[in-house]
Amino acid sequence: MLAELAPLASARVSLWRRVVAFAIDFGLVSLLSASLGFGVAAQATVFCLGWLVLRVFVVDRNQGQSLGRWAFDMRVMNAIRGGTPDLLTLTKREGMLAVEGFLFFVGLTYFSPQNAWVLLLFLPLLVDCGLAYADPDQQQTLHDQIAKTRIVRTRRGYSLDSKIKNLVADVGRRMKK
């Protein structure tokens, strides 16, 4: 059990895996918000509550893993003392992401050639996460720096990326036959 929770020696997680894990969580909360919310205020409320449940309470109870992070074998850790961050730290980290994620959701929802200005709603999330690209050593986003957290690989999870890679390789081998 402890071996599952311990971060691996090469603890850094590639950025594409982090983006896809975020996209899984974002997609679930966006679907919930779009189906239950009527109007921007109701959608914002549903989105933020869904985000806090999935990315704070589930993470607190699931050893640092949301559904997206579990699918890709990673977890959020306290960068200073290790272990899963406390609820206040998770709320600070994910509250910032909830606002950025909702702005991104609104931008996707209302985008059209006549409303091209909604592309500006993508900027907060892009700037926040763009900091990870600017710092190739630590790869910490702005919300990670503020909350003093980091994302690390772990043995506990579904290994979705490995399963997809193996499936594609298997299909390639079968097609060669």
Output the keywords:
about 180 residues, single chain, mainly alpha, 2 strands, two-stranded antiparallel ribbon
Succession of helices and strands: HHHHEHHHEH
Q: Which blocks of ≥5 consecutive residues have pLDDT under 50?
A: none
**Averaged pLDDT, please?**
89
Q: Which structural class do the helices and strands define?
A: mainly alpha
- Biggest β-sheet: strands ordered side by side in the sheet: 1-2
Radius of gyration: 17 Å
| Number of DSSP E strands | 2
Overall, the morphology is globular
Distance between the termini: 42 Å
Bin the strand percentage. Answer: 5-15%
Number of domains: 1
Please report the number of helical segments. Answer: 8
Described by strand count, sense and barrel closure, the largest sheet is: 2 strands, antiparallel
> How much helix, percentage-wise, in residues?
55-70%
Q: How would you portray this structure in words?
A:
The chain is mainly α and 177 residues long. The chain contains 8 helices and 2 strands. It has one domain (10-176). Strands 1-2 form a two-stranded antiparallel ribbon. Helix 2 crosses helix 3. The protein is globular and about 50 Å long.
In short:
This protein is mostly helical and 177 residues long. It contains eight helices and two strands, in the order H-H-H-H-E-H-H-H-E-H.
Which helices and strands appear, and what pairs or packs with what?
Blueprint: H1 2-5, H2 15-36, H3 40-61, H4 67-71, E1 74-78, H5 87-110, H6 123-134, H7 142-147, E2 149-153, H8 160-176
Antiparallel strand pairs: 1-2
Helix pairs in contact: 2-3, 3-5
